[in-house]
Amino acid sequence: MKNTRCNASLIMRKKAKKDEIPTVWDRYEEQTPQCSYGLLGVCCHICNMGPCRIDPFGNAPQKGVCGATADSMVARNFLAHIATGAAAHSDHSREIVLYLRKLCENTAENIRIADKEKLRMIAEETGIDQDGKTDQAICFELAQLFLREFGKQLPGKYPLISRVPKRRLELWQKLNVVPRGIDREIVDSMHRTHIGVDNDCISILTQGIRTALADGWVGSMIATEMSDLMFGVPKPKETQVNLGVLQSNMVNIIIHGHDPLMSESLIRMSNETSMLRRAQENGAEGINVCGMCCTGNEMLMRHGIKLAGNFLQQELAIITGAVEAMIVDIQCIMPSLGDIAKCYHTKFITTSSKANFPGAVAMEFNDRNADETAYNIVQAAVDNYRNRKMSAVCIPKESMNAIVGFSGEALRDFFGNGYEQLIESLKTGQIKGIAAVVGCNNPKTEHDSNHIAIVRQLLDNDILVVTTGCGAIACAKSGLLTTNEGPHSHGTLSRLCNQLRIPPVLHMGSCVDNSRILVIAAKLANALNCDISDLPLAATAPEWMSQKAISIGTYTVGSGIFTVLGTVPRVLGSPSVKSILTQDIESILGARFAVEPDPIQAASLIISHIENKRKTLFTP
């Protein structure tokens, strides 16, 4: 039954069993043993001559009907995952830029430029002439500039290319992996996976790197910067995390997904005086808006909104019986939510035309009806409070305080405008290195356990941790995002963090915000006159599960950062692809993947890597 280190989740799993509600863990167990061919990546269904599979033990068959080998099958599958993940992040980015353009055309409802200083800074960085122009005019030019990045067809400079360290950019140019247009790379990748196109695994994987770089350094980076511009640059603030943030005497609304545009409007409408009065008329004491997954990360970063949990807790939140509405948009939404919501009083509402689910009520959110739709959604949740069955309510007590909101700008307030104190601490060894612990949850591992085990090992070795996504939420629930991390208070890292009054684990946002980590890595490399691959820096996704994670991991390696995966990617069926990704690629890009399911061993790999980089970089 356990499968989770989170006690609140364990309580709700027991309630789910009592209520006869199957959850993600039950469905995972039903699927085991999983198809061994699929796990190794040696299956192909891209044409109707198949599906084909390669025998991984060397017996016949060794080729698909068309003649494709294990190498091409595995590489094409890997590329298709990268393309899908890059598309998810970049389509998210496109929607934000389109909203920004609508803002400048005066057709978007109640969207304001929250950070005019950042607007001017990005305009200068991207070469937009600002003389005599209004903020609105500059903003429009910026939106137009970024929109062109999606459909650009020919090679050329992308707007934020100045952020890439010179040595890294020269390497990309030499390897011909500098991103072209975002959509161009995704379409190129999908074309290559069609039957009878690219069958050379090196060529396929090279395109995968270029596509992933278009995600990290273009699509995701644009999404983060424009969200900051419109809604405000995150600053440190305190909040609470885990299922215990739900309130038995309040209208509980959970916002789940990845679109900050929707959540901003919903937060605003839930604070309307008329809506609060309506909640009281329905018997509630107020309205409690909570986040789930990455939308939750966006909201707590900017507003301190409480966060109910991460990916594997979305079903459990409804099973508490205390949620009036689960409101979703895009990415990481389990289709099971519709069936589970029917077992309770919860309204399951989808707001994106791209994400329709069985059992969901569609209330599409767009720039023409933002506040009206948000108002109607909140009103539906408030009126649903009367339908709650108090006998079905079980809210775990577990909630943990957390300090969040460490954007790059916020870190400059602590470490200096050029991160001088961070650099000095790295040189002296007060901080041995930096590790990014990111990614999803996966029922193949004990929920949250691998994230926490790795982080604790890194802190014991004075390695500063930065975190995003569901991994960040796991750290928050375990008390690692506070300034009092007791068991690790003896090290030089902890002493520095206490001096600066920051946690030893820095919450940097949602999965699209991994681009913040790239920017910081680039700034450190420039300050130390080296490549990103020379830094005492590593990354790990201990419980990853999504296509986005494959894209993130690939652009991280492509940027020169050693990356450890905790769940096994589907590449083991091709010794050539496995060797390229985990060995050969290091001599080309200065970084590689490692796969290590054991969190202690994974932490050891990171610690060893950081120690070796320190010797090379800081030895006279």
Walk me through what this model shows:
With 620 residues, the chain is an alpha/beta fold. The chain folds into three domains: 70-231, Substrate Binding Domain Of Dnak, Chain:A, Domain 2, CATH 1.20.1270.30; 243-392, 3-Layer(aba) Sandwich (Rossmann fold); 405-618, Rossmann fold (3-Layer(aba) Sandwich). Helix content is 49%, strand content 10%. It has 24 helices and 16 strands. The strands form four sheets. Strands 6-5-4-7-8-9 form a six-stranded parallel sheet. It has a six-stranded parallel sheet with strand order 13-12-11-14-15-16, with helices on both faces. Strands 1-2 form a two-stranded antiparallel ribbon. Helix 4 runs parallel beside helix 9 and helix 9 crosses helix 21. The model has no long low-confidence stretch (mean pLDDT 94).
Rounded average pLDDT: 94
The proportion of residues in beta strands is: 5-15%
Supply the number of helical segments. 24
Shape: globular
Q: What fold name stands as the CATH topology of the largest domain?
A: Rossmann fold
Based on helices, strands and strand pairing, what is the structural class? Answer: alpha/beta
Largest sheet, strands/sense/barrel: 6 strands, parallel
End-to-end span in angstroms? 54 Å
The CATH architecture name of the largest domain reads: 3-Layer(aba) Sandwich
Helical residue percent band: 40-55%
The residue ranges in which pLDDT falls below 50 over 5 or more consecutive positions are none
The level-1 CATH class of the largest domain: Alpha Beta
Question: In angstroms, what is the radius of gyration?
Answer: 24 Å
Count of separate structural domains? 3
Side-by-side strand order of the widest sheet: 6-5-4-7-8-9
Number of strands: 16
